[in-house]
């Protein structure tokens, strides 16, 4: 899947206007994973594609360097913390003490460039109660076309106890258009997405 490198190298040479025109005309012709990559970056997210666990570790290290020296990370589940055990001293179980939130997700919504999270990832909190910086770990098998497909996946995945809440993050830059109806009620989060190929 070297197409991600191709997208971002060519995208840098094109103007945003040209990219928007291409997206609006050819959305149906662009593969879903490419659509996600383009739209996620247009929404202001920082997208990093990895093909191995080794790459994931290097990417995580570089993200922490970019964020800065005063990093305190809260997390949605213990398995994520153990994935990055090298940085154990940076983790805290108290969300109020943290400035970074490490989480997995339910699905990646390709047509929106958004990230579907449930109460399982949000720890029963509203997104505005969580740190401003998100690091999301996901796999390519979690990509779905739209929210409807994501909801079907949720119903299939949680047959007995369904999550109490769902939110799809799609605003990753502070200067988003506040008048855009699609951003209504949305919370801005500076978001890094580490995507691991597992297909």
UniProtKB/TrEMBL annotation:
This is LUD domain-containing protein. It comes from the Bacteria. Residues 94-170 form the LUD domain. It comes from Capnocytophaga cynodegmi.
